[in-house]
Amino acid sequence: MIFLFDCDGVLVDSEIVAASVDASILASAGYQIAADDIIHRYVGLTFRAVVAIIAKETNRTFPEDIYAKQRAELDRRLRKESKPVAGAADVLKKISGPRGVCSNSGSERLKITLGGAGLIDAFAPHIYSAVEVGDMPPKPAPDVYSYAAAQFGVAPKDCIVIEDSVFGVTAAKAAGARVVGFTGASHSWPGHADLLTEAGAETVINRFRDLPAVAEALASWSGLPD
């Protein structure tokens, strides 16, 4: 069984940082939104996708330099604030078998977050950016999970994916992987687990120490019906 982890909000406690930055950058462009609202509505999406949704919903345009500003500020914050989610390092010592990272973040961002959290060596070279592999569509497209499974020489159904967002769960399910929802990072909120289940997660955990037993159970269970 191959383990494929999302990065932000699963391995690295960075979604709460990203939401704060996104809210600030959008406010500077004239659109007010709370960081909590960004988490509840958009967690798991790229900032470019978030801006596109808001632009469509509000019939407004945003300056093109908003993306560079967000990227620079988020990189600055993450260099200071990246830390592993509680229990992440310990569970990686306990689970057997290969593992990889599948993220919407670019490879340079992944070096910042995983590096700051001290987790790069636990996954290299199997660290995949959705926007840099294959045809490069971000989650909720399934491509990054299909690509990662192929790199290990297995079908997606032989992978257990750990995801914290509806969009990530949707991507993994569309690829044909088994999905465990995760609500153990600091951006989680009441109702988070229910949303992950509705999106297709076969079970949800909020602490990493439960993952080995859950993975063992999934390996012997045929899974939820489509």
Q: What is the number of helices?
A: 10
H and E string: EHHHHHEHEHEHEHEH
Beta-strand share of residues? 5-15%
- What proportion of the residues is helical, as a percent range? 40-55%
Secondary structure: number of strands:
6
SSE class: alpha/beta
**Strand count, sense and closure of the main sheet?**
6 strands, parallel
Instruction: Provide the low-confidence segments as ranges.
Output: none
Mean pLDDT: 96
Indicate the overall shape: globular
User: Distance between the terminal alpha carbons, to the nearest Å?
Assistant: 21 Å
Radius of gyration, whole Å:
17 Å
Strand order of the largest sheet: 3-2-1-4-5-6
Commentary on this structure:
This protein is an alpha/beta fold and 226 residues long. It is 46% helix and 11% strand. The protein has 10 helices and 6 strands. It has helices spanning 15-28, 35-42, 47-58, 66-81, 88-94, 107-116, 143-152, 166-175, 192-199, 211-219, and strands spanning 2-5, 99-103, 127-129, 159-163, 178-182, 203-205. It has a 6-stranded parallel sheet with strand order 3-2-1-4-5-6, with helices on both faces. Helix 1 (15-28) packs across helix 2 (35-42), helix 1 packs antiparallel against helix 4 (66-81) and helix 8 packs parallel to helix 9. The radius of gyration is 17 Å and the shape is globular. The model has no long low-confidence stretch (mean pLDDT 96).
Topology:
Layout: E1 2-5, H1 15-28, H2 35-42, H3 47-58, H4 66-81, H5 88-94, E2 99-103, H6 107-116, E3 127-129, H7 143-152, E4 159-163, H8 166-175, E5 178-182, H9 192-199, E6 203-205, H10 211-219
Parallel strand pairs: 1-2, 1-4, 2-3, 4-5, 5-6
